[in-house]
Amino acid sequence: MNAQLANAAVLIADVVKVFHPQSPQARAIFDLTIVVIVVMVIIFAVVVGIVLYALLGFPRWREGERDPEQGEGNKTIEIVWTAVPLAIVIILFVLSARTMGISDPPPPPKPDIVVIGHQWWWEARYTNSGAVVANEIHIPMGKSVALRLDAVDVLHEFWVPELGRKLTTVPGHPNHLWIQSDKPATYLGFCTEFCGTQHAWMHFLLVAESQADFEKWEQAQVGPAPAPSSENAQKGLALFEQMSCVNCHTIKGTIASATFGPDLTHFASRKQLGAGIVNNTPENLRRWLHNPQQVKVGAKMPNFKFTDEQVTQLADYIETLK
Amino acid sequence: MTTQQFFTSTWTWNLAALASIAAALVAYVWAFGLGRRILYLIAGLGVFVLALISPLNALAAGYLFSAHMLQHILLLLIVPALVWMSLPRWVSLGSRSWLVANPFVGWIAGVGAMWLWHARPLCNAAVSSQFVNALQISSLILLGTIFWRQILAPREEERMSPPGAVLYLFSACVACSILGILITFSPVSVCPIYAQPPTDRLRILNLIQSNWGITPDKDQQIGGLLMWVPMCLVYLSAIVAQLARWFAHPVASAPVMDKHL
Amino acid sequence: MNGNTTITATVGHLLTPAERQHWKLAWLSTVDHKRIGILYMLIGLVFFVFGGIEALLIRLQLIVPNNTLLGPDTYNWMFTMHGTTMIFLVAMPVLFGIMNYILPLQIGARDMAFPRLNALGVWLVPFGGILLHFSFLAGGPPAVGWFAYTPLSEAPYSSQLGVDYWAISLLVLGVGSVSAGINFIVTVLTQRAPGMTLRRLPLFSWMVFMNAFLVILALPLLNAALVMLLIDRLLGGRFFLPFGGGSAILWQHIFWAFGHPEVYIVAIPAFAILSEVIPVFSRKPIFGHEFVAASTVIIVFLSLLVWAHHMFTVGLGHTIDLFFVAASVLIAVPTGVKLFNWSATMVGGRVRFTTPMLYCVAALLQFLIGGLTGISHAVAPLDWQTKNSYYLVAHFHNIFVGLIVFAILGGIYYWFPKMSGRMLSERIGKWTFWLMTIGFNLTFMIQHVLGLAGMPRRTFTYPDLPGWTWMNMVSTIGAFFMAAGSILFVWDLVTSLFRGKPAGDNPWNAWTLEWATTSPPPHENFNALPPIHSRRPLWDYANPDRPDPVVPVGGAIDTFRPDKIKAGVMTFIISEFGFFGVLILTYLFYNATSKSGPGAQQLDVLKTTIFSICLFASSFTIWQSEVGLRANNLGKMKAWLIATIVLGGIFIVGQGLEYWSLFQSGVTVGLDLFATTFFTLTGFHGLHVFFGLLALLVVLGVALISNPKNGRFPALGAVGYYWHFVDVVWVFVFSIVYLWPLIR
User: Fold this and answer.
1) Residue B137 maps to a domain
2) What's the confidence (pLDDT) of residue A11?
3) Is C195 on the interface with B (CB under 8 A)?
């Protein structure tokens, strides 16, 4: 029975991500949450208690009966139930100030990663190495990483529930956020400020890994795309450069250097496609290339009406972009 | 220096201030004798002295705009209110002057004082010139006194009626909030003399900016915000008192024909 | 009771004999507050169906992950329209309708102070609603959420007309709301029966009175935001576009400065209903009347100071965040006072669980939960986690549905007998109650967990994460319970109208004046009034052995009865402060540094000074005109009035010429931030002058046609106040826009 309860507790904690803090910042908020929940439960109990007392402690109305003692109020009680909540809220205010400081420390002069919100994908630029990625952000575990949040079009909002607060990305007004994970894990992140058609599918993955793994990953992301070897893949690269792909995407090492759409240099290393709408599998990639609008209607990538052969060649090329 | 050192070593002598409170105390006792109400006067004079000789004054003298704002609030709103409350209920002050007795004048005095002293040249001058500083302090006390007369005049009949008083205080809060909003969100410095690091006579600049983390931008924000929520809370408390005054009534048991109606 | 059950007969029973032939016209042209109240409620009910269907579609789409019932754009239309409809076309009209019906009765008045203005208010609701829904036929409704954050709602990102229809319809509705607010205030101040002093107002009336102040202060802030958004979208303005130098966050500040008071504007009437129903069905007066009344004033005050708690995640900085935390947690105190007092009212009483009481007690408990989760949001670090998730959705639905819809249902079950002469069915009522309560709690309680599990709001679908599917499913099932309850409720309304038990004057044995007349009341409301010495005149009348303590008449304010027209104009002027305040603050915010373009330096200050002097002089001339009227010197009155019109006309022409020359030199609205703010601020002032001139011309015309006698011509005084106000605004605008750059 105890094991079952424990399992249930773990399961609940896993599902209820806010109660599953994985960083000091999220833990600070969680600790305050417990306090607030206790306060809420107490006040709830008091009021429900009074109501129950009223309903159970006195006879119900009966037709024709004389109305009870009318009463007027009681100044002392009024002062008590004004002063006590006032004291409680003052305490909550002080605790808020403290937790704000712990869970949201001031930013450093230079961020480690610049995260930029687009309709409907996330760009991340690593300031130290120059790596540019999309929708999948890696950080070394156990270390505090400084993010600068920005947006190019409308308001978006960056949130990883297990790791701490959410923060809006405001075009023209950069914001700063520290992010940190105690353990290696892959977290699902969300956009939480309604930003248009595909707001629901503007997810990102936040991958926390060991320092060694992180450095390996970062190094791999910095380098240019490997040259394609198979014939199909080479045709794919040629297509990519001729078609309007280069108007929106960057692939380092080729002529493509536009930044309207996600950087594809190491696209094949990512777990998801389309900011989380589907997993990054060969089949999904082909579906996307056939008609992105079928996969993610409203996405800014139009339907290019590629032929099957073109899709195969492009996909073969893109799959080499590890 | 450390925060603790700061709080113990930056008290300043202010002969004029001490002399005036002594004079006030003497005048009060001579006019009204000793009674319970003198406690209000002592509280008010205490706040007055604290505002002018405590470390708050040291901060306000060129270091922190927000400290200067706090000083304002104490001098304009707290001190005069406490002094009014110390007067015995039979005293009638200012009722013969149409100017002083008029609620609009009172309102403009209280609100105008805040707005006036945040005009940039005046704000700067109050820090750099001793004379203007003295003028500022005296004007805040005077205008605050005129403002509070409408609410706290000793005689009930010289006060505004409670609903009117609620409107008076509410609109004063709105007017000060607007100023607070302007100051908090202003992209430029409202009182530039605070934006440049002052000649660090007390050597506390490091303490303020590094230990306490108050940069000039944040300082201005805090100053504007003080004008807003805390100041409005003062007005709110007064409103609560007015409502209590209005709704408090002796209990009568038999229906009475209301002659006025 | 035997009787005809046709529509005509039933409605006929509510009409005077003369009206029965033209009953449709009688209702369409009515200025009677009782009919207007019913019209408000019926219109709200119609839009409730729309908003409800939108809600059901939303919940159906979310019943399983990756559902394809609604595409993303359609879903985004649905939640935008659901929110906008429910707040502006359902909650506000229905509550204004209840307040409209009951307030004059409770204060012993014959009607509202301005019956025709009242009619204007009600007809603006369907007008605005149709305008909003017309967007379905004009490219699609808005898909930006009910608060339309910029830049998403700006033209580059919402190029269809939906947002424009949204903005214009809200402007129309806002005018109606403000007019209703003015009417409520002036009615309470001027229409009270003899003996009904301000302190003897029953809590419902007192809260309506306080709420009306919030309406006139908050709605104009929305109006200012909407016109600025429209100027951006239609005229190329720069207010909220970051690439143009504007601030996307400014929209949030202005919107929420309206938006937070707005939620109190709909909550306070719900509090008012609870404050009436709970005492009556506890058979005791409300516990701590003065404290509940005073807490209402404090809530009105504080609700204007808390808006940025909707912006904790925007990145305003901890300093600013903390001040709003302080104000927001503080507002919990007076709110709690109310909850405690309602609960204490029931203690020692003889509780009677009629349908209205069931609804109101449920509302109390559900509001308790909503208020507590509100406190959790006020604690900013918690809000940093819960905002924009389903936890927030659960919180505000606890207030909007849990408190407000339930209070409305309770209020309707309570007052329907008064309005129609028939009782609603207690049996069906209890069914609707349980369906609604089970449905509401099923739908929204689980959403607290869903939000903490990470599900963001406003998402047309969601991934198949553990727990998300079953939680959404439960939520959807609950929605259908509520739908069933609503349908049953309408059924009850319709059948009881024809077949309900006759109600009599006072079926609940209640104590306030609306129960001292027939059900429904006659056209003039009362044939006679009982003596009014306390807040419960009918209790005193029925219980002479133990009447309520007399509420003494204290001071002039209790019997303060200003002139109706003056009070109306002054209230209108107060409402305008908010509108101009926002425009002026925005102007200052954007023009504080002289970095944006040529700026104010290119204005011709001299010319403007000249025609400004004319405007200022016109304040003097209109004052002289009033002096003439008071001295019964009609010639003098008319002459000075003409002078005022001429001077005002010079101002308008002068401003027009100034605009013309600016346009000629390429300074148009969309040129830069200075131009946008300049034209908006001075343009709206000019518009006010223009309307003032029209009013003056009308006054002159009336004066010429029907020579006012005995110095009585209230219209002149009213327009005079308005005219002085317009001048005062120009003093500020002129100083800030034209003079300040010279000395800066």
Assistant:
1) yes
2) 64
3) yes
Q: What range does the domain containing B81 cover?
A: 3-244
Type of residue numbered A86: L
Question: Quick check: B258 and C556 CB within 8 A?
Answer: no
Map residue B92 onto helix, strand or coil: coil
Report the pLDDT averaged over residues A163-169: 96
Token pair 């004082």: residue: B113
- C226 in a domain, yes or no? yes
Query: What digits encode the pLDDT tens for the residues C538-583?
Result: 999 999 999 998 888 876 677 778 889 999 999 999 999 999 999 9
The parent domain of residue C629 ranges over: 591-743
Task: Kindly state the DSSP code that residue C501 receives in the 8-state scheme.
Answer: P
**Does residue B260 fall inside a structural domain?**
no
Cα C399-C404-C410 angle, rounded to 5 deg: 140
Residue C549 forms contact with B (CB below 8 Å): yes
Taking only the tens place, the pLDDT of each residue in B151-189 is 998 888 888 888 889 999 999 999 999 899 989 988 888
In this predicted structure, which of A259-263, B221-225, B247-251, C167-171 has the lowest mean pLDDT?
Answer: B247-251
C255 exposed, middle or buried (CB, 10 Å; 0-12, 13-18, 19+)?
buried
Q: What is the CATH number of the domain that holds C250?
A: 1.20.210.10
Mean pLDDT of A4-33: 84
Tokens at residue C8, please?
């005509």
User: Torsion angle of alpha carbons A9, A11, A13, A17, nearest 10°?
Assistant: -170
Which chain B residues contact residue C327 at CB under 8 A?
Answer: 229
C199 domain residue, yes or no? yes
Q: How far is B88 from chain C (nearest CA, A)?
A: 22
The first and second tokens of residue C251, run together, are 């929209």
Chain A residue at shortest CA distance from C335: A82
**Residue C285: how many other CB atoms lie within 10 Å:** 23
| Whether pLDDT at B260 is above 50 | no
pTM for this entry: 0.93
Q: Which of C558, C579, C609 is the last residue of a domain?
A: C558
Residues C633 and C707 in one domain: yes
Instruction: Mark the ranges of chain C whose per-residue pLDDT is less than 70.
Output: 1-21, 555-556, 594-598, 744
**Interaxial angle between packed helices C33-61 and C115-134, expressed in degrees from 0 to 180 and rounded to the nearest 10:** 20
Per-residue pLDDT tens digits for C30-44: 999 999 999 999 999
Cβ neighbors of B23 (< 8 A, separation 6 or more) are: none
DSSP character string of B201-235: TTS-HHIIIIIS---HHHHHHHHHHHTTHHHHHHH
**Is C562 within 8 Å of chain B by CB?**
no
Q: Give bridge partners of residue A206 from the DSSP assignment.
A: A137, A187
How many other β-carbons are positioned within 10 Å of the β-carbon of residue C568? 25
Count of Cβ atoms closer than 10 Å to residue B252 Cβ: 14
Please state at what angle helix C714-734 crosses helix C605-630, rounded to 10 degrees.
Answer: 160
Residue B33 predicted with pLDDT over 90? no
Distance CA(A300)–CA(A119), nearest Å, equals 8
Q: Give strand pairing partners of C456.
A: C389
- Cross-chain CB nearest to A43 (options C352, C372, C382): C372
Contact C294 B247 (CB under 8 A): yes
Q: Position of tokens 């009674």?
A: B35
Contact status, residue A49 vs residue C343, Cβ threshold 8 Å:
no
Does residue A113 carry a pLDDT above 80?
yes
Query: Which of C240, C343, C539 is most worth mutating to test chain A (most A CB atoms within 10 A of its CB)?
Result: C343
Q: Are residues C614 and C547 in the same domain?
A: no
ipTM score of complex: 0.95
Minimal-distance CA residue of chain C relative to B165: C557
* Domains in chain C, number: 2
Contact assignment for C381 to A103 by CB distance below 8 Å: yes
Task: Out of A164-178, B197-211, C601-615, pick the least confident.
Answer: B197-211
Query: Do C550 and C600 belong to one domain?
Result: no
The whole-number pLDDT of residue B249 equals: 59
Q: Which chains border A (3 or more CB–CB pairs < 8 Å)?
A: C
Q: Looking at the complex, does the CB of residue A188 fall below 8 Å from at least one CB of chain C? A: yes
